[in-house]
Amino acid sequence: MSVTQHCPVGPAGNVGSSVTYVFAVCGPGRPGPFAATCGHTGGGPLRLLAVGPLWAVVQDVPAVTFSETALHRRLTDAAELERCARAHHDVVTAAAAGGPTVPLPLATLYLSHERATAALGANLERFRAALGRVAGRVEWGVKVYVVESDTTARPAPSAPPETPQPGSQRVSGRAYLSRLRHRQHSRELNRESALAAAEQVDRAVREMAVGSVRHRLHGPEATGRDRTQVMNAAYLIAEERGDELATTIRRLRGSPGFDNIEIEVSGPWAPYSFTDGGELAGHQ
């Protein structure tokens, strides 16, 4: 469910005013009460806002700290972004524990409850479809990495110096280039093997999933220099199939060709990646 993010308050804001922050939209069965500490710091208690037969989980938050300028500053600071994302995620998770839930993007804001109701109501049928799609299902993240071996990650140690012999520079140069070509060839073989392993993981997990999404690969700043991410995917899977997923991943980790492969699984999560459907399988 793609809903435009609104940051409707100007740079100055009004210290005494508030705006409506929307976390998620839930089905007709109202989610239970939320913990008093849930939500963004400085905001009011979480509330349910009727959107036709559905319910939006909202919070009144200070306009001055959620203005466009303030929000941009906060979300470009890593620590503050993590705090905002954690608060958002905690509310979505609590709502999803009570029934089908469509998470909204981080920082979905409206000037008032009336504007929130009108904007969300315009997407009512899409929310209904998304809720039907995710009912009884959860999101699992699966990432696949190739781990660099010592021979491919680092150059071979230099040989101890020897007394130069006629033509030795040419021989040493050829040996050096040969080692470079060997390392490059090893890296290419490792990557090809890793891509084949990733496709094998994807096929196995999609057998039990009703939807899948491929996300952008993470670079070395997130994965570390000693491993390369070759798959970053999310799968929509029935709640009761979590043990089956774990068994499948254990089997794959012990399969031939997975010696330098890491499979990382996270979840279950609220279905963030499937509010717009993802790639839906044919065996729903």
Number of domains: 2
Which fold name is given in CATH as the topology of the largest domain? Answer: Alpha-Beta Plaits
Using only CA atoms, what is the Rg? Answer: 25 Å
Q: Termini, distance in Å? A: 19 Å
Shape: globular
Largest sheet: 5 strands, antiparallel
Count of helical regions: 8
Regions with little confidence, pLDDT below 50 for 5+ residues: 1-15, 151-162, 278-284
State which percent range the strand residues make up.
15-25%
Give the topology.
Elements lengths: L17 E9 L20 E5 L2 E9 L5 H8 L2 H19 L4 E3 L5 E2 L2 H9 L2 H11 L2 E11 L2 H4 L14 H39 L2 E6 L5 H4 L3 E12 L3 H12 L7 E9 L9 E2 L4
Antiparallel strand pairs: 1-3, 1-4, 1-5, 2-3, 6-8, 6-9, 7-8, 7-10
Helix pairs in contact: 6-8
Summarize the entry for a quick read.
By secondary structure, the chain is of the alpha+beta class. Helices cover 37% and strands 24% of the residues.
